[in-house]
Write a structure and sequence with these properties.
six-stranded antiparallel sheet; 6 strands; globular; 20% helix; 37% strand; alpha+beta
Protein backbone atom coordinates (compact mmCIF):
# COMPACT_ATOMS: atom_id res chain seq x y z
CA UNK A 1 0.00 0.00 0.00
CA UNK A 2 1.25 3.46 -0.91
CA UNK A 3 2.11 5.73 2.00
CA UNK A 4 0.30 9.05 1.53
CA UNK A 5 1.87 12.23 2.82
CA UNK A 6 -0.28 14.59 4.83
CA UNK A 7 -1.17 17.68 2.81
CA UNK A 8 0.36 19.86 5.55
CA UNK A 9 3.74 18.29 4.81
CA UNK A 10 3.93 19.24 1.14
CA UNK A 11 6.58 21.79 0.11
CA UNK A 12 5.75 25.50 0.40
CA UNK A 13 5.94 26.09 -3.36
CA UNK A 14 3.38 23.34 -4.00
CA UNK A 15 1.07 24.83 -1.35
CA UNK A 16 1.50 28.26 -2.99
CA UNK A 17 0.60 26.91 -6.42
CA UNK A 18 -2.49 25.14 -5.14
CA UNK A 19 -3.58 28.24 -3.21
CA UNK A 20 -2.95 30.53 -6.19
CA UNK A 21 -5.12 28.40 -8.47
CA UNK A 22 -8.05 28.48 -6.05
CA UNK A 23 -7.55 32.18 -5.23
CA UNK A 24 -7.44 33.06 -8.95
CA UNK A 25 -10.70 31.21 -9.67
CA UNK A 26 -12.58 32.03 -6.48
CA UNK A 27 -11.47 35.57 -5.61
CA UNK A 28 -9.41 37.28 -8.30
CA UNK A 29 -11.67 36.46 -11.26
CA UNK A 30 -14.80 37.45 -9.32
CA UNK A 31 -13.39 40.79 -8.11
CA UNK A 32 -11.34 42.17 -11.02
CA UNK A 33 -8.02 41.44 -9.31
CA UNK A 34 -5.71 41.19 -12.31
CA UNK A 35 -2.39 40.88 -10.53
CA UNK A 36 -1.49 39.22 -7.26
CA UNK A 37 1.27 37.12 -5.79
CA UNK A 38 1.25 34.50 -3.03
CA UNK A 39 3.93 33.50 -0.57
CA UNK A 40 3.54 30.49 1.71
CA UNK A 41 5.08 30.70 5.16
CA UNK A 42 5.53 27.75 7.47
CA UNK A 43 6.46 28.50 11.04
CA UNK A 44 6.55 25.24 12.95
CA UNK A 45 3.06 23.80 12.60
CA UNK A 46 1.54 27.11 11.54
CA UNK A 47 0.99 27.64 7.83
CA UNK A 48 -0.11 30.96 6.44
CA UNK A 49 -0.32 32.61 3.06
CA UNK A 50 0.57 36.21 2.26
CA UNK A 51 -1.28 37.48 -0.79
CA UNK A 52 0.00 40.71 -2.28
CA UNK A 53 -2.70 42.40 -4.34
CA UNK A 54 -1.44 44.86 -6.92
CA UNK A 55 -4.25 47.39 -7.13
CA UNK A 56 -5.41 48.81 -10.44
CA UNK A 57 -8.49 50.74 -11.48
CA UNK A 58 -11.53 48.55 -10.88
CA UNK A 59 -9.89 46.18 -8.40
CA UNK A 60 -10.96 46.16 -4.75
CA UNK A 61 -9.30 48.73 -2.54
CA UNK A 62 -7.45 48.06 0.69
CA UNK A 63 -10.45 49.40 2.65
CA UNK A 64 -12.93 47.18 0.80
CA UNK A 65 -10.84 44.09 1.52
CA UNK A 66 -10.27 45.09 5.15
CA UNK A 67 -14.03 45.58 5.66
CA UNK A 68 -14.84 42.13 4.20
CA UNK A 69 -16.49 43.49 1.06
CA UNK A 70 -14.50 41.36 -1.40
CA UNK A 71 -16.65 38.56 -2.82
CA UNK A 72 -15.64 34.97 -1.90
CA UNK A 73 -12.49 36.11 -0.06
CA UNK A 74 -13.22 35.07 3.52
CA UNK A 75 -12.03 31.47 3.15
CA UNK A 76 -9.87 29.55 0.67
CA UNK A 77 -9.92 25.74 0.62
CA UNK A 78 -7.21 23.81 -1.21
CA UNK A 79 -7.43 20.07 -1.50
CA UNK A 80 -6.14 17.01 -3.30
CA UNK A 81 -5.95 13.29 -2.61
CA UNK A 82 -3.78 13.97 0.47
CA UNK A 83 -6.42 16.03 2.22
CA UNK A 84 -7.48 19.65 2.42
CA UNK A 85 -6.27 22.90 3.93
CA UNK A 86 -8.71 25.65 4.88
CA UNK A 87 -7.28 29.16 4.99
CA UNK A 88 -9.24 31.95 6.69
CA UNK A 89 -8.74 35.62 5.81
CA UNK A 90 -7.29 37.55 8.74
CA UNK A 91 -8.93 40.90 8.11
CA UNK A 92 -7.13 42.47 11.07
CA UNK A 93 -3.75 41.56 9.50
CA UNK A 94 -4.33 43.19 6.10
CA UNK A 95 -1.58 45.74 5.52
CA UNK A 96 -1.42 48.62 3.06
CA UNK A 97 1.89 48.56 1.15
CA UNK A 98 1.40 51.84 -0.74
CA UNK A 99 -1.47 53.82 -2.21
CA UNK A 100 -2.62 50.94 -4.46
CA UNK A 101 -1.13 47.67 -3.20
CA UNK A 102 -1.82 45.71 -0.04
CA UNK A 103 -1.06 42.36 1.57
CA UNK A 104 -3.74 39.98 2.80
CA UNK A 105 -2.92 37.20 5.27
CA UNK A 106 -4.70 33.84 5.21
CA UNK A 107 -4.08 31.40 8.06
CA UNK A 108 -4.90 27.71 8.40
CA UNK A 109 -7.93 27.16 10.61
Amino acid sequence: MKNKRDIKDIPSDETENMFMDVYRDQVASENSIDEFDCKCNKDGKEIYMEVTVFGFAGSPTYDEYKKGKVKNASEIVVQDERGKLTFKCMYNEIVSLNSNDYMVVYRII
